From TrEMBL, chains A, B:
It is an enzyme of class 1 (oxidoreductase). It is found in: Cytoplasm. This is 3-isopropylmalate dehydrogenase. The record marks Y144, K194 as: Important for catalysis. One of its GO terms (biological process) is L-leucine biosynthetic process.
Amino acid sequence: ANSFTVAVLPGDGIGPEVMAEALKVLDAVEKKYDVSFKRTLANVGGAGIDNEGKALPDTTVDICKQSDAILFGSVGGPKWETLPPDEQPERGALLPLRKIFGLFCNLRPAIIFPALTGASSLKDDVIKGGFDILVVRELTGGIYFSTPKGIEGEGSEKTGFDTMKYSAAEVERITHVAFEAARKRGSKVCSIDKANVLSTSVLWREVVERVSKEYPDVELSHMYVDNAAMQLVRWPKQFDVMLCSNMFGDIISDEAAMLTGSLGMLPSASLAEGSFGMYEPSGGSAPDIAGQGIANPIAQILSAAMMLRYSFNMVAAADAINAAVEVVLNNGYRTGDIYQGGDNEKKVNTSEMGDAIIAQL
Amino acid sequence: ANSFTVAVLPGDGIGPEVMAEALKVLDAVEKKYDVSFKRTLANVGGAGIDNEGKALPDTTVDICKQSDAILFGSVGGPKWETLPPDEQPERGALLPLRKIFGLFCNLRPAIIFPALTGASSLKDDVIKGGFDILVVRELTGGIYFSTPKGIEGEGSEKTGFDTMKYSAAEVERITHVAFEAARKRGSKVCSIDKANVLSTSVLWREVVERVSKEYPDVELSHMYVDNAAMQLVRWPKQFDVMLCSNMFGDIISDEAAMLTGSLGMLPSASLAEGSFGMYEPSGGSAPDIAGQGIANPIAQILSAAMMLRYSFNMVAAADAINAAVEVVLNNGYRTGDIYQGGDNEKKVNTSEMGDAIIAQL
Ligand SMILES: CC(C)[C@H](C(=O)O)[C@@H](O)C(=O)O
Ligand SMILES: CC(C)[C@H](C(=O)O)[C@@H](O)C(=O)O
């Protein structure tokens, strides 16, 4: 039997609760397919700070290094909000993880499930039939990690500065991912930049153009980021794959996710070269509902499915999980966040939702 | 009688048509109030390129320098899209104008007019009663204008780079504008940054906090830009004044504008220290409908009203124009872009809309 090792980092807030359901799903996959997942739990985020003194403890890094993939819950909460930014759960865990493991490619699907169009803030005629956008975000370069960066001077001269930088090689690498992904989907890439203002974007556009020549079957367009922020609101269906730098991808992927109206449903993958990756829900740690057993576990379960697909090449199992989620939604199962009070809807808690999905597997 | 000089830069596309209506409104203001507006026409954008060889001709700069304010139409169109970014109508006219005239403060209202809630992509229950956001965007600093900036190297090492930079003095200046504006509105400022990643934002937040102490009557909150892009979609009514750096303001103001559903209605002001300012519609030059006399002149007319308010201190006249627009909309007058086919609606062309507004003045 195949065997994979998974570093399990539940984190804070609803993280542990929804992670429990994802692990139950992995159990079910073990039973159905000839595979085993060796899991090692580790602290991260606020749990890292409280138990081991920092958001990304060294032991956690070691455990991740010994694993084939990281399944990540969510981090953060009011308790740690007054720490300096560098030490806070989100920033203090996520940025180092991305850097240490070379997670240059962030895949953030923004999908409206047909059963859930009601949850979107957008009018029905704008989203009729749903939409399905994949944001491909560069994750280890750009203004997040380039230097110089700092604060200097005193008084009114005190100055903060950051550097945005991309090499052709970095742009090339992420562009290939976007075009490969588009081939398996709607065959369209829209590259988001600000080439009318940023030199980084001028290079970005030039490289994207060049790489696109290798994919004559995929349609390429370019859009300025300010226009993209508008077009997402106006007509999200026009997009298939959106290719973004680190900073623009941060903003655009969150906007697109919120337009679906179901943040609790959206997984994400952060991939290194090779098969290593980190998988996490797009939503946050939702401290307000933590510990009540009512959080929506679907984003975490779909993140586990992405892990099977991208790190373990278990495409059939990943497809089966996605299909099970769809059936369960069509059958009316709803956690509180997606409950609309319709006739066909059954309100369930976190573990009931997990069980319903497993029953469909 | 008071007398003011106005540089009139109609630009491209629908610019000249909607500008004609704004000038008619200025005529009406001259008649009603004891004032005269001395206007000088000048080329800008594609019209500048075609007639004088560049997007911002020197004669245009001179005319603007001799004026008390600039009334700007809109620039750009397919004809000039293949020029290098620096020379294109938008970038080649707007960025130098901002720099030359020190237009550090960009005010971009995003308002849903009660009569037009139907035009928004957002569901009725999200926008019931409308919303009224003022984006205050820093316009002469940040990653737009800081150096170094360029492209270096060859092959896969070829690297594009930009610098984001803010001094405490720059942040202070724009923060005061935001708080002063909030005082006259909903008394709330939400400052948008990415302090968990950018040093610039750490300084930004520190300065905003300090300045806010001078405005104990105004409530301050901070929000990361990715979250702001989401919150705008989820619940726009939570915002009053949004204070943004140059880059984030570019994205956030466009998203907010599109959420209103009526881009053709939104004016903007770009202010220097003192009373000089440039006033322009938020929408583009709409080349697809140019020359047909059907464009919506309201954004241009409301831009003229902002000019009266901010550069000429003619508050009563500005209020009167705003009120006239509101009455005309309530009376059902609609250009094609905002026509929904309702019983009470009368479809009108550009000049009929201008006339209707003047009749109310
Ligand atoms: C926590 C923060 C540093 C992070 C980012 O900006 O990348 C988060 O917003 C995300 O998108 O994963
Ligand atoms: C044309 C472009 C340089 C400009 C900007 O980015 O500021 C425009 O998008 C705007 O917002 O006025």
